[in-house]
Amino acid sequence: MNAQFEELIARLGEIADFNNAAGVLSWDQQTYMPPGAIRARAQQLTTLRRTAHERFTSDEIGQLLDDLEPQVAELEPGSYEASLIRVTRRDYDRQRKLSADLVARLTRTTALAREAWERARKASDFALFLPHLDEILDLSVEIAEALGYEDRIYDALLDRFEPGLKTARIEALFAEMKAGLVPLGQAIAGQQGRADDTFLHQDFPVDRQWDFGLEVITRLGFDFEHGRQDRSAHPFTTSFTPADVRLTTRLSPGNFKSALFGSIHEAGHGMYNQGIPMDLARTPLARGASLGVHESQSRMWENIVGRSRGFWTFWLPRLREYFPSQLEGVTVDAFYRAVNRVEPSLIRVEADEVTYNLHIFVRFEIENLMLERKVRLSDLPELWKTKMEEYLGVWPADDADGVLQDVHWSSGMLGYFPTYSLGNILSAQFYDQAVSEIPDIPAQIEKGEFGSLLGWMRTNIHARGAKYTPAELVELVTGGPIRTEPFLDYARSKYAEIYGL
Amino acid sequence: MNAQFEELIARLGEIADFNNAAGVLSWDQQTYMPPGAIRARAQQLTTLRRTAHERFTSDEIGQLLDDLEPQVAELEPGSYEASLIRVTRRDYDRQRKLSADLVARLTRTTALAREAWERARKASDFALFLPHLDEILDLSVEIAEALGYEDRIYDALLDRFEPGLKTARIEALFAEMKAGLVPLGQAIAGQQGRADDTFLHQDFPVDRQWDFGLEVITRLGFDFEHGRQDRSAHPFTTSFTPADVRLTTRLSPGNFKSALFGSIHEAGHGMYNQGIPMDLARTPLARGASLGVHESQSRMWENIVGRSRGFWTFWLPRLREYFPSQLEGVTVDAFYRAVNRVEPSLIRVEADEVTYNLHIFVRFEIENLMLERKVRLSDLPELWKTKMEEYLGVWPADDADGVLQDVHWSSGMLGYFPTYSLGNILSAQFYDQAVSEIPDIPAQIEKGEFGSLLGWMRTNIHARGAKYTPAELVELVTGGPIRTEPFLDYARSKYAEIYGL
Questions:
Q1: Which tens digits make up the pLDDT trace of B15-70?
Q2: Which of A247, A370, B282, B494 is the one with CA 20 to 30 A from A320?
């Protein structure tokens, strides 16, 4: 391309360097940073993030986009140049709509709210968090109005995480999910004896858990030449270009499932990040299509692959070498049932495949009511409990295990929760498509071979970076719209078999 | 102070954030970064360093300094405001003298030279490095001319590391050191049986070395609330404000001394960094007075404290609990002699206290000849050997163990080596002063108490950051000029006793 395009690429590259450097500092903060460094680190991050924001929202970037848009109008929309201009324009317009003052107020408010949320959750007292949530809701409405929307105020916030996706579409998808999952959960509730997992609650020494987890994710295809795994209080994945992707996990002797499936989940995110072509690095295209599409990869490896009978047919003999006494006499079938035990519970992050989405629907519905000012915030604890009983048949004893359990609102991330369920929906849709094109995949998984599946995801999902919106990507990859049937069929047949329904 | 001063502080703070962020990225590169990330990391570092340089050398900083200098002229020179303006001006003028083009050429040249040096050292073939050294010498002369000097070209390069110190003064100090150390080394050469260290060359499991090292540096006063230690190929210390100081060490089972004394050395640097007041953080005052003064702290803890009889009177019983079989029957006296064994050798970084400085004199003299164009670079290998024989009585068999052993020249750091010997000189001078003010210090060390000594260093050295030049600091702290007698007296009496001279 021409000199202007080169100029844009150079500027975006520098901005990416600032953001990637901030990523390294955040990773360090959560893994190795000494506790006394917290204030100095906050200053460094503020300077890096502000510099990146200022440079990205500069008039110069706007002028370059104005000049380049007519030049790429004739190009194929999936081409590097057209995609880059289109996605950069979308990000630019969105960021320009948020004034520096609004961003600064959000930063201040969420810093205080985060602290207040931690105190409130510890005390299990929603009242401590309420005034902060009130401010955050006001700011979220202000942000939504600044970003603009046609139909629903929720659209404006959702669009930050799922470009192009509307609230009405999410509602339709979730209604289908609900119609399938609520009865499934109820049917299972009567049969819980069929999936006994007591043997998983023995002592599993963490060093051996760590080694087994590394062996698994290495074989799945996570590339340690361009990544690593460390420990942190809360597992996460981050990347500072596709050449440097960091996973974290958390280990405890009595919770074998948490570390292993956590590692596989994060490796699913990590392999997506590693699969983004280096040609896209240091541009706005060097990320996933959306958070939901990102979650489709983590959930596919964690659940559809990692909790399949074929997977454990291969891995259980190996796992038995790590933990011979703990797994004595445990068959593949018993192990498979144990890691797929369904049990309605209060806490989202510990939920199984069937009930997990129900937790999301509760949050999604409540967020809409909040943004549309249809609920008083002081009524949230009760509303939460009512909806939990409606969907899951459980009743939180207190706010800590209820409305206060998630960090998201304190960070200002309203509109984020639906991405989790969208990830589940897409995980099955993409997996089904892969198997329809490569029918041998389940047999390969049983032999511990994951290359074909990863290769398909690389080609169809990862290699495209953020060129397409989620709906465009699904259309390209599957030839149709986002659909819940693959997930519902998967869940129904898997759990009907396990629970003899 | 006024709004202009606040403006300067704010700008310097942001610049420090960029440099500290770059410090985190460099630390990560040398400790945890996956190997495939090297190119992406180089880009991130280039962007951060260039941004810091551009902002620091901006006309706005110059204007603020111009405006503020008259305002601080009446203030006490050691005040925060006067020191900040003075030191910032010195840095600013120096960096402005180096054109962006010159800096870019140096970066390119040293990147290639570093690679060539590694290849040349591996092949032990100076000819492979020669053309790169030739370019680096040309650039160093160009830099020296740009920076300016009155007497000797070496002054301009030395001043980057030792503000205000002249080559002639270094020569005078080194002449005194040589006159004392060369005969001392020769006298010891005939008595080597008196310091047997064979028991140190047994198998010392690295996990226990690690734990013992942590115990030692914790007790010395390194603060793990504001710092940590990790492993790296080459030990180093770095800090991202005094609240976050990182040490690294390297461990091998057969080399007990290397890891322990390396850890103590780096902790000496680290405690200096941690001792700089947070008021000075994010300004040009938040560093040591010079590299030599920094080295005085690392060498004092490593050698004067860490290799003293009193130190091992306290620590040997504890060390024996870590390594009972390896240290069976080893007395404090035998241990003390072993860790103080003097032996002329080819490699600087492995040298003992007596011969270490002789390695430096060789390099310092050769660098002067190079910069004054008094030696052909192709003659360096022979010149090196001749001087090594003259000072140390050893003759390198090849270039890898001779002229190619150090990385400094390939990085463009001519003028750096004298800081090592200056550190040794100052370590004894500061320690003597501390003991003259607190005579109980040696007795405290024997009881494993290091707080008084660290406290004295905190107050007299660390708390002053970079407010003073090395000569000013020595005058303030000791009431006189930099002197070699303390080091020579220390070395003569210690080694006369060990070797029965």
A1: 999 999 999 999 999 999 999 999 999 999 999 999 999 999 999 999 999 999 99
A2: A247
- Where are any strands of DSSP class E within A291-384? none
- The answer to whether the Cβ–Cβ distance between A47 and B17 falls below 8 Å is yes
Domain boundary among A97, A116, A133: A97
Closest Cβ opposite residue A40 in set B28, B225, B241: B241
Which of A97, A130, A148 terminates a domain? The answer is: A97
CB B190 within 8 A of CB B184: no
Are the Cβ atoms of B44 and A13 closer than 8 angstroms?
Answer: no
What is the reported pTM?
0.95
pLDDT digits (tens, 9 = 90+) for B222-249: 999 999 999 998 899 999 999 999 999 9
Residues B443 and B331 in one domain: yes
A76 is catalytic: no
Q: Is the pLDDT of residue B331 over 80?
A: yes
pLDDT at residue B192, rounded to an integer: 74
Q: Is residue A424 assigned to a domain? A: no
Which pLDDT belongs to residue B108? 86
Band of pLDDT at residue A3, cut at 50, 70 and 90: very high
pLDDT tier for residue B189 given thresholds of 50, 70 and 90: confident
Those residues whose C-beta lies under 8 Å from the C-beta of residue A138, and which sit 6 or more positions away, are none
Which domain, by its residues, includes B454? 194-344+439-499
B14, B22, B44: residue with CB nearest A20? B44
Residue B40 maps to a domain? yes
Residues of A with CB under 8 A from a CB of B: 13-14, 17-18, 20-22, 24-25, 28, 32-37, 39-41, 43-44, 46-48, 51, 223-228, 230, 240-241, 243-244, 281-282
Using alpha carbons, select from B298, B258, B282, B287 the residue that is nearest to residue B419: B298
Q: Catalytic one among A266, A302, A353, A367?
A: A266
Confidence of residue A1 (pLDDT cuts 50, 70, 90): low
Whether residue B430 is contained in a domain is answered as no
Number of domains chain A contains: 2
3-state secondary structure B398-443: CCCCCCCCCCHHHHCCCCCCHHHHHHHHHHHHHHHHHHHHCCCHHH
How far off is chain B from A287, nearest CA to CA, in Å?
Answer: 16
Take residue A475 and report the two structure tokens written for it: 């259309």
- Measured distance CA(B37)–CA(A223) in Å, rounded: 12
**How crowded is residue B12: how many other Cβ atoms within 10 Å of its Cβ?**
22
* Cα(B177)–Cα(B483) distance, integer angstroms: 10
Are B231 and B250 contacting, i.e. CB atoms less than 8 angstroms apart? yes
Q: At residue A411, does pLDDT exceed 80?
A: yes
Strand partners, B238: B246
